[in-house]
Amino acid sequence: MTTKWLSPSPISRLHVLGARGLDLLFPPVCAGCGRAGYALCPLCAQEVEPVGEPICAHCGRRQARAVKRCPLCASEDEPPLDLVRAATLHRWPLREAIHALKYEGRTELAQPLARYLLATLAIPPWPAILPRIDAVIPAPLHARRRAERGYNQATLLARPLCRWMGLPLHTDWLQRTQMTRPQVGLNAHERRANVADAFRASPAVCGKTLLLIDDVYTTGATMTACAAAAKAAGARLVYGLALAQPASRN
Ligand SMILES: [Zn+2]
Ligand SMILES: [Zn+2]
Questions:
Q1: Residue 243: what are its φ and ψ, rounded to 5°?
Q2: Tell me, what's the pLDDT at 76?
Q3: Which of 89, 168, 187, 227 is packed most tightly, with the most Cβ within 10 A?
Q4: What residues flank ion ligand 1 with Cβ within 5 A?
Q5: Nearest listed ligand to the Cα of residue 79
Q6: Closest-approaching ligand to the CA atom of 249
């Protein structure tokens, strides 16, 4: 199933040409198909697949049938995340675009990819939630990791989203205080244990309703740990929005 999205390509193209004159000489190539002149070409942009139904109403993961709480959510008495959704499925060409954004310095992809977050926020339950959001917080990288990469991809995704939505962005309200081993290859329980105490929230979150932004939501370990740190510092409600979730049902 392919749903029509807001096409990001003309905007991304203007953005890229405006931001870096060198791109006139060395135009960007599409992260999905390699076509010159686009960060993500119109054809690939239309191939990006929304998560769609049926899902778990709490964590937004795809399910065989619609459920209020999937088994993973039901295993927690008081999940620190109040509600989570992912915008798209983590498969070509979105998967390649996220990889290029994170690991190949293709920061010009952030704005076209953020359009999928924007489109998702137009779908219930978000219109009822958004007026209550006090701050948008990107899932933080450890300072050392951020220095190596030169940027936090979650911040690059959150920034245009906040501009379009008129929401305040706070990149310093949550910090990653521990470097943890990569989550790849760990199961859900191991992932949660790995990042459980890796984050610390500013007292500024006390009493606030927050929207966390991240690139990929797999078992939710990172975002759950972020939300737990925010709740420990007094945050009232914590919502999560990720760009992508794994394509397979779980
Ligand atoms: Zn393409
Ligand atoms: Zn769930």
A1: -70, -35
A2: 85
A3: 227
A4: 30, 32-33, 35, 41, 44
A5: 2
A6: 2
Looking at all shown ligands, the one closest to residue 37's CA atom is 1
Lowest mean pLDDT among 14-28, 34-48, 51-65, 71-85: 14-28
CA of 128 to the centre of ligand 2 (A): 20
Among all bound ligands, the one having the nearest atom to the CA of 92 is 1
Distance 7 CA to ligand 2 centre (A): 30
Question: Which ligand is the nearest neighbour of the Cα of 32?
Answer: 1
Ligand number, closest to the Cα atom of 43: 1
Domains and CATH numbers, the chain: 51-246 (3.40.50)
Whole-structure pTM value? 0.88
**Residue 6: its pLDDT value, please?**
54
d(CA 65, CA 211): 27
Per-residue CA distances from 8 to 48, 89, 102, 110, 130 (Å): 11, 17, 19, 10, 22
What is the Å distance from ligand 1's center to 79 Cα? 39
Going from the Cα of 244 to the center of ligand 2, the distance in angstroms, rounded, reads 15
Mean per-residue pLDDT, 159-170: 98
- Measured CA to CA in angstroms, residue 52 lies from 48, 63, 75, 145, 179 at distances of 12, 10, 24, 33, 34
Q: By CB neighbour count within 10 A (0-12 exposed, 13-18 middle, 19+ buried), where does 79 fall?
A: buried
The pLDDT value given to residue 249: 53
The answer to whether 133 and 82 have CB atoms below 8 angstroms apart is no
Q: Which residues contact 80 (CB under 8 A, 6 or more apart)?
A: 224, 227, 228, 230, 231, 238
